[in-house]
Amino acid sequence: MRAFLCTSDGVAIDAVYDPGAVVYDTSRTPADHPVFVVAHGFTGAVDRPHVRRVARAFARYGAVVTFSFRGHGASGGRSTVGDREVLDLAAAVGWARELGHARVGTVGFSMGGSVVLRHAALHPRQTDAVVSVSAPARWYYRGTAPMRRLHWLVTRPEGRVVSRYGLRTRIHHRDWDPVPLSPVEAVPRIAPTPLLIVHGDADGYFPVDHPRMLAAAAADQGELWLEPGMGHAENAASDELLGRIGEWVVGRAG
Q: Entry's Pfam families (predicted)?
């Protein structure tokens, strides 16, 4: 099922629902199954192959909602690179609830990983379990070459042109004002909602001090999986890892 959702600030968000395991167990209703709401990384979109692969993996464990953040794919608006994207995720979670699912797990990758953390902090009780994969802990990080390139895309007019036509991602030209709550500031506000932080020790964007900062902020209210040899975000997440995440969400939210 495909639909355009409207965020609280009036942006149209392209979203797809896959009933997943519900289809194979007709004795149960959507309320009996958890739903995974997947928040993709920067320059991703609902129809990108790596997003569809994640959706297929989670569909073994429950229903799945995928969507394109503002400025990405067929969604309206322009990307604010993790700020107002919280409203996009809130609209997707609301749609999952409207479809009958009583239990919702949000799973975000990279930029989407920061969004699920901030969403859980700013919209308490909207989600029942949170998984953040390959997320930054703090804003304005430029310590790696990939992040320096990303900042050029976001902050320079010529970079935004490259992003629009080369990466099919439309970026807002305005700076953050005010600067949004950072992921590490958001984490302590998530409890008692179960939280899982996943990061690769070979991540080329954000080194391991980022997940360790997030885990320290969560204290005993969160779990950290530091994955040996894993790179960054959806493309680096193996089917085996996605399966473990699926089982974790079912165990906490299901």
A: Abhydrolase_1 (PF00561)
Task: For residues 254 and 102, give the distance between their C-alpha atoms in angstroms, rounded to a whole number.
Answer: 9
User: Tokens at residue 76, please?
Assistant: 């309206």
228 close to 146: Cβ distance less than 8 angstroms: no
The total number of structural domains in the chain stands at 1
Per-residue pLDDT for the chain (254 aa), expressed as one digit of tens each?
999 999 999 999 999 999 987 555 555 666 667 999 999 999 999 999 999 999 999 999 999 999 999 999 999 999 999 999 999 999 999 999 999 999 999 999 999 999 999 999 999 889 999 999 999 999 999 999 999 999 999 999 999 999 999 999 999 999 999 999 999 999 999 999 999 999 999 999 999 999 999 999 999 899 999 999 999 999 999 999 999 999 999 999 86
8 CB-near residues (< 8 Å, 6+ apart)? 87, 90, 91
- Which range of residues forms the domain containing residue 96? 2-141+181-251
156 lies in some domain: no
Half-sphere exposure of 173 (CA within 13 A, CB side): 3
